[in-house]
Amino acid sequence: MGSDWVPKTGTGYPNRPINRSFPRSSFAVVIPVYNHGRTVTAVVQRTAALGFAVFVIDDGSEDLDARALKKISGIRLLHHGRNRGKGAALATGFAAAARAGFAWAISLDADGQHLPEECLTLIRAIPAGTRPIVVGQRTGMLGAGAPWTSRFGRGFSNFWIRCSGGPSTTDTQSGFRIYPLPEVLNLDVKARRYQYELEVLVKAAWQRIPVIETPISVIYRPEGGRISHFHPFFDFLRNTGTFTRLIVRRIFGRHRKGSPCTAREQ
């Protein structure tokens, strides 16, 4: 393992050897779904074929083929009666995975922009003996095919996450991640839409949960072919509100600074 690449560290554990011993059975893949009927079945099939337990969270979709999903071995389908937001769907999936005894959750978007096979890339990036959040760093974000809203949003979020006391990561808007359970469930994240993924990084840093990055692929389909529920204007306002709340808490010392995470690895 001496020649292995060591993932870039946002906070936590630099220069640790890569641990390849994590059993796949410790990880559940959580896939939030909201009107991704065209893509989600293929994403779930490819993920389940890797041997992972898959939790699909239907966040009030109108086009989901539940019968097709239920035919896939190894998945658990959970429903929200109405659309509550991506963060709420992730929280539901994480809680269900923790109750089922999983030590880790891998969040994977349902729109097909990520390769399910790269779940293994994220797992291999976990340094031995640690329980970090692992963020998939999208390597194609600067290409011509990447939406300008994604490029701008990433830079905006990266800057304000650092101002909020969060990690110095480079792709804070990537949805392809590994989360340690139950540490993340204990962070008391308030946001329930896309802002959940931003707030969780800041509050993880406050509690000294390490955050690391590792490169992953990203696939952006031609205009009109990508399913996205990101609304630049409204989500910009929500992001601003989230960062304002976090910065105020940090300035006035109302955030809880935790001890380094010592939860037992499973």
From TrEMBL:
InterPro entries, per the entry: Glyco_trans_2-like, Nucleotide-diphossugar_trans
- Annotated signal sequence is none
Residue ranges constituting the Glycosyltransferase 2-like domain according to the UniProt record = 29-151
Q: Which CDD domains match?
A: DPM_DPG-synthase_like (cd04179)
Task: Output the Pfam families linked to this UniProt entry.
Answer: Glycos_transf_2
Q: Which residues cross the membrane?
A: none
Biological processes annotated in GO: protein N-linked glycosylation
Listed name of the protein: Glycosyltransferase 2-like domain-containing protein
Q: Which organism is it from?
A: Desulfosarcina ovata subsp. sediminis
Q: What is the lineage of its organism?
A: Bacteria, Pseudomonadati, Thermodesulfobacteriota, Desulfobacteria, Desulfobacterales
